[in-house]
Amino acid sequence: MKEICEKEGIKLHTSVRYSPESNGVAERTIGVLTNAVRAMLHNSRLPKFLWAEAFNAATYVHNRTLTKALGSHMPFEVLYGAKPDILHLRTFGAPCAIVKPKERLRKLDDRATMCFFVGYKYKGGGYRVWDPKKRVVVESRDILSFEDGLLPPTLGAA
After folding, report:
1. Cross-strand bridge partners of residue 130
2. Looking at the domain assignment, is residue 120 inside a domain?
3. 151 occurs within a structural domain
């Protein structure tokens, strides 16, 4: 392994077994993200089995926040050379509705499915939402978010 790293110009830093403290930045970042996940799940009152969705959402937001270690730049900005658009960010666990396209609706079909926001689709844009009736996470670009907790009277309760 040492030979491969040297050949590729990679500096290999080892740490003592069973001492995560010596991993520094990586362990701190994991700790920060884990605390964020705990708070997000608690605040949203969503089931704990959605912890992986919460972790992905926390990481997505973390990569779009300023970091002192990067000279007050965002990890996203350093990686892609441009500031990220953050207007699409939503509150984890907020009620939302997947709006069905008119072309797929029949006369008396429901026009939306009530769900809860749980994350971001990385490729192609869009969102990840949890459908509590089917107990599945669905990806969609067509959602209405009700972050203030109020649902429009035409959609009713979840």
Report:
1. 116, 137
2. yes
3. no
Cα 93 from Cα 44, distance rounded (Å): 5
Domain count, the chain: 1
The CA-to-CA distance between both ends of the chain, in Å, stands at 54
Which range of residues forms the domain containing residue 99?
2-145
Residue 153 domain flag? no
Q: Is 107 helix (H, G, I), strand (E, B) or coil?
A: coil
Residues 6+ apart with CB under 8 A from 11: 5
Please give the chain's pLDDT, 158 residues, in tens. Answer: 888 888 888 887 777 777 766 677 777 888 899 999 999 999 999 999 999 999 999 999 998 988 887 888 888 888 888 888 888 889 999 999 988 877 777 787 777 889 999 999 887 788 999 999 999 999 988 888 887 665 554 444 44
| 92, two tokens | 């984890």
CB 146 within 8 A of CB 96: yes
- Characterize the bridge pairing of strands 143-145 and 95-99: antiparallel
- pTM of the shown model: 0.75
Cα three-residue angle 17-22-25, rounded to 5 degrees: 135
